[in-house]
Amino acid sequence: MKLEKFTIILLLILLASGLAQLYGANIFPFEGHIIRDTHIAEGIASGREMRLVGPTSEAEQNSGQQTLGPLYYYLLSAPLLFAKDSIANPVRLYGAIILFNLIAILLTYLFCREFFTKKIGIIAALLFSTAPWAVVHFKLIVTPSFLPVFVLLFMISLFKLHLKNDSKYIILLAFSAAALLHLHLSSLFLLPLAALVVFFSRKNIKLKHILAAIAILFIMFAPATYYNLQNSENGAGGFLSGRLSGETNHLLYAIESFGIPVLMVTNYLGTYWLGKAELFSGQAGNTIYLLSAVVIGIFFLLSAVYLMRYALGRFDKPAILLFAWILMPVFVFAIMGQNVSPHFFIIIWPAPFIIMALFVEKLSKKSWLAWGLLAFILLANITTIGALHGLLEREGGTSSAFGTSYAAKMAVVDYVRTRYDITTPICFIKHPKAGYVYLFEKAGYSNIKLINIPQDFSEKCGGILIIDRFTMFDYGEKKLKADDLQFINTMNRTTIYHAEIAESIGKAG
């Protein structure tokens, strides 16, 4: 069978995206709740554990819910069913996210091919696969990393239900909606759109399909419902109360609600991901980087204006639904007047990239410069991703939201393994750093100790002290006083990336 050109281009996009992600497969954050979820995934894969709910606000299962089901943990554990337990387990978990990311790119193309054109599908897939914010988010072993696949299934269902009058898609709609709520409760803000579509399509929906959808919802929510009845928990209520309570600053949070989605379409990663690090050396490189982000942001806003005019001017139903996909959740967040995080807006991906693709295709009919602009955006994205990978490989992480990477922590563990036997005490200040503890325990070290201040190191540890001020939350180091920091600076230390390793000649007591 002869492959058409769009299929070949799509396969090349998927191959390039997959290879790029595999190239940096060990450069991802590894700390905090990622360690908790890794332990749970290992427990499920080995048959030691069964989960009824997804991630909670604390490590224990009976703490406040953040999802309405355990699907995340079962998706996460799948790669470990076929692998021997090892220190490389986290890389295998990340492999599941790579696979889902590629499926999301494929579904983006299929969605556009069905409701717009193949050319728009290719452009949207290119933009989505190279968007730096998407690349960074898909390096996180967290629930939002699995969202885009199910968001796309959700939107395909809505479009099919409303535009094609295909009643059976209410079954897929029920499944994808439940899956989204298993993964992150920000998905609640897509439900008003679903309710409107179902309402306007109600005359064409068959009873047997409604009953099947209800059965799907019952099955999908049964584990969490049982858990809630046993533990008097209300995951959605807790999440919503957090969005509705407390002091509000409507203007500030409205700006954030509209501004963050625009920022996440550009190549500008900012201090949120990079901290004080700069992606490019020299003022010229960083100036070009900033200007390219401005150009991409303006182009997205122009694309949104074009879509709005097209949707309302021609009353084009696909365009209206696409516009509502972005606008409804953003408006809900803005009206609530509460602080929002970038990962809340993953539920609108890849709609912004589809909108940009529509505008590129529109402009290309008038001038070849449209393809030049697309090439500029892709070049800016790819250059940013390359610079980011270089930074993470060179520094081992950032002092901001990214934190210390798995690869950098493994470098510390490998250094210790070549010099100290497994009975050596591994010490941390005030709080153990979960990522290091996990890796050292996998390597056979179990003598993990805590000290309150660096001055206690020689007397109370008698092993090695690991100080990592790049780790996302800094833990104990954040609470150290000036004289404590000065004392650390007088110690003989070996630096691996940005982690400092000090050796004690004191007692092991």
Question: Care to describe what's here?
Answer:
- With 509 residues, this protein is mainly α.
- The protein has 2 domains: 391 residues, no CATH class; 98 residues.
- Helix content is 61%, strand content 4%.
- It contains 21 helices and 5 strands.
Topology readout:
Blueprint: H1 5-23, H2 33-45, H3 71-77, H4 89-115, H5 118-130, H6 132-137, H7 147-163, H8 169-183, H9 191-200, H10 207-231, H11 235-244, H12 250-263, H13 270-274, H14 283-314, H15 317-336, H16 351-364, H17 369-395, H18 406-417, E1 426-429, H19 434-442, E2 448-451, H20 457-460, E3 464-467, H21 482-490, E4 493-496, E5 499-503
Summary?
With 509 residues, the protein is mainly alpha-helical. It is built from 21 helices and five strands.
Which features characterize this protein?
509 residues; mainly alpha; 21 helices; 61% helix; 4% strand
Secondary structure: number of strands: 5
Note the total helix count: 21
Distance between the termini: 72 Å
Give the total of domains: 2
Indicate the low-confidence ranges by residue numbers: none
Please give the order of strands in the largest beta sheet.
2-1-3-5-4
Largest sheet, described in full? 5 strands, mixed
The helicity comes to 55-70%
Net shape: globular
Q: Give me the secondary-structure category.
A: mainly alpha
Radius of gyration: 24 Å
Strand content: under 5%
Mean pLDDT, all residues:
87
State the order of secondary-structure elements, H for helix, E for strand. Answer: HHHHHHHHHHHHHHHHHHEHEHEHEE
